[in-house]
Write a structure and sequence with these properties.
alpha/beta; five-stranded parallel sheet; elongated
């Protein structure tokens, strides 16, 4: 006989406007045996706004205690409890706590389901005016400038639309770094305070957006960046081929593999890319000791 286990429910919460709360959210909050919340104070504000009360046990579940609390919640799930996981805004696990608990529940063959809700990623994509048929979510970039540039260089040739979260006080530096790595004219959109009173979507080239952000921006920020253009062999000069090889090398690839990858992407013989790299190295002259 298969043992009866509980259910883990991941519930989306409004990213701004409380009216966006999915109808099932109130029902799940009222009936769950345990509500695991990223911030219990924010949870109280949410239930007040919805005009409901939780009847189950409320526990905190945030980045600082996620590892320690996961076994406790899995034990409750194994015992038959219905555990509801909510974060401050949006869907759990998307740059928020939740992944560890989902992985642990799946490993124990515990049912995991979701109450779909608002998502800053999808909302920003839809409003950006950029291609949305293919995209990748990159979350938050590293805070240190060097690490941030390295992460951006890893996706410099990514053709899918890119989506990032960013803190308002780092937005200008991030946009400037994107302009440096992706190109000043690469199109982007900065989506601020989505679904809230002062919602704003600023669209334009990265360099232009960086200058705008330097004046100061407030609120929750999602940045959407156009993917790299699909350029054919005739459009890639030697300088661009060398740049692409260097980007890959700086991301950790060996030169041989970087040359092969650039050649494949450009539809060129590896020898042509190799010759461009050697010529650039010779033009720079011998390294100074």
């Amino acid at each position: 006989m298969t043992p009866v286990t509980g259910t883990l429910v991941l519930a989306g919460t409004p990213i701004g406007d409380i009216a966006d709360a999915p109808p099932r959210l109130a029902t799940e909050l009222e009936s769950a045996d345990i509500v695991a919340a990223e911030d219990t104070r924010r949870l109280r504000g949410l239930t007040r706004a919805l005009g409901i009360h939780t009847t189950g046990r409320v526990v905190s579940y945030f980045e600082g205690n996620e590892s320690a609390r996961t076994p406790e919640l899995v034990e409750a799930l194994a015992g038959g409890a219905r555990v509801l996981l909510v974060t401050d805004a949006g869907m759990p696990s998307v740059s928020d706590p939740g992944y560890r608990l989902v992985a642990a529940a799946v490993e124990q063959d515990i049912k995991v389901t979701a109450v779909p809700g608002p998502s800053a990623v999808l909302t920003a994509l839809a409003l950006s005016g950029l291609p949305v048929d293919r995209f990748c979510f990159e979350g938050f970039l590293p805070r240190k400038a060097g690490e941030r540039l390295g992460r951006l260089r890893e996706v410099a040739d990514e053709r899918r639309t890119l989506v990032y979260f960013e803190a308002p006080h780092r937005l200008d530096d991030t946009l400037a770094a994107m302009a440096e790595v992706f190109g000043a004219e690469r199109r982007a959109a900065v989506c601020r305070e989505l679904t809230k009173t002062y919602e704003e979507v600023k669209r334009g080239p990265l360099a232009e957006l960086a200058a705008w952000a330097a004046e100061g921006v407030r609120g929750e920020i999602t940045v959407v960046v156009e993917g790299a253009p699909e350029t054919g062999p005739a459009e890639l000069d030697a300088e661009e081929l060398v740049r692409r090889v260097r980007v890959r090398e700086e991301a950790g690839e060996r030169r041989k593999e970087a040359i092969a990858a650039v050649a494949a992407d450009a539809g060129l013989p590896k020898r042509e890319v190799f010759d461009a790299v050697v010529a650039a190295k010779n033009a720079e002259g011998p390294a100074k000791s």
